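Example with several molecule types.
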Amino acid sequence: MKFVRRHVLTAYAALALAYLFLPIAVVVAYSFNNPKGRFNYTWQGFTWSNWTHPFAYPGLSGALKISVEIALLSSVVATALGTLIALALVRYRFRGSATTNLLIFVPMTTPEVVMGASLLALFVNWKVPQGFGTILIAHILFNISYVVVTVRARLVGFDRHLEEAAMDLGANEWVTFQKVTLPLIMPGILAAGLLAFALSIDDFVITYFNAGATVTFPLFVWGAARVATPPQINVIGTAIFLIAVTGMLANILFQNVRLRKTAQVV
Amino acid sequence: MFHRRKWAIPYLLLTPGTAWLVIFFVVPMWYLGKMSLSQGLFPLFSFSWAWGNFHDAISSYRTQFIRSGEYAGIATAIALVVSYPLAYWIAFRGGRWKNLFLLLVIAPFFVTYLIRTLAWETILSDNGLVVHTLQHLGILGSDGRLLATSTAVIAGITYNFLPFMVLPLYVSLEQIDVRLIEAAEDLYASRPWAFARVTLPLSLPGVFAGVLLTFIPAAGDFINAQLLGTPRQYMIGNVIQSEFLSVRDYPTAAALSFVLMAAILVLVLIFARALGTDRLTVSHA
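Resulting structure tokens for the full complex:
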């Protein structure tokens, strides 16, 4: 009975994973398609040319460049701001911490379409021209909450004795932070940064409301989908996927190596 | 340690980030609220306590509101059924590969949202394998289709927000002390009984968080209805989007946004009350 149960569950999990990867398989497969018309919906024949000429479709490289720039800038700024908030929330008791928690939580539960619309209302009222700057502002905004949550999870499980030991040995608070606290929460900060980068490069809805004439990669796909779907879109999609997965794998391995090292020391 | 001015440290740490959240989240909400009570034509709107906007918004788009609730509700339920066993399997059977399996679950969502949805368009298309199989099995008529139906839109929503369900479920299941389940079994609880009385109640915070995190973006979504459906499947997100960006009737769009937020908030509170999880909302916040 136990045997059957175990395998039923395993089979179910395998099926669920297959379901999750089905569209990805389609994206990857169709990146090698050689469509006759403008739309890349039916299989016409195999070709390498989409991969050897990923930017053959006009406007694609520019859109991708803007997306990467915004993802880099917004993840760095949001990670810095969010980490500071997480430190304050976990390490100190202060008036207003409940309000701050609410301020972190509510943006995550706001539908994207509403958040995008509210920013649009702000920029219209302040007569701020929409473009690169307004997209960046919006991306930093929605990333902050996710960074706080991720870094806070790391800080909560933190053994404060390690810091006390450093201070007993004569380190002041700043040195302790640099030499003990920061290295220990670094995996959390890195994970938060990666998450922020991924959220930013994928965002469509909020960007759509605040882009003006600027075109990011998701906006490019949206615009293209109406008139044509060049297979180059699949190439870039696959490439982003591979880079992200490699980054996450590296993070997991990095943490495992650290764990093993710590285990050896103890 | 610097004892003096120590009280100021948390505020110094907080200020930059919270200032960003206040200026670009709270203030915009205020402007959106003001806009929802304004009148006029683009780009000249004037504030006039026009509560009628709300009445008009609700009565004109009642169908889309109800549809959003239905689609999001069904999609959330399916996502829960798909995700719970998967999260359970990773948490209790994943062993040292837990993180790797978790990565496998998240990985598909690093393909851009729109590209993923376009892939579903290919999968569900009229001459695709899924439609042919269903026609062959007689589930779908010979001229039946999936694309441009509510089934396709719900399928797309279910898929696209799945990580928001899997991750909180996994976190709550993974934290369960296995000894509690073993204790129940030692005390002669059958495996299903131990699951129902120990594992399931202990994972409820994850179910609660997962349902919220899936339902909220699902209810506001407009991409799936746009790419996989037709105007007959349009949800409230489609209406807000087009009122803002095409029609440019900002007051109506702003009123719709607030009604959507309020509706979601009410549903969340009812849901919290039903699950008896008032405590959970607090700990989650």
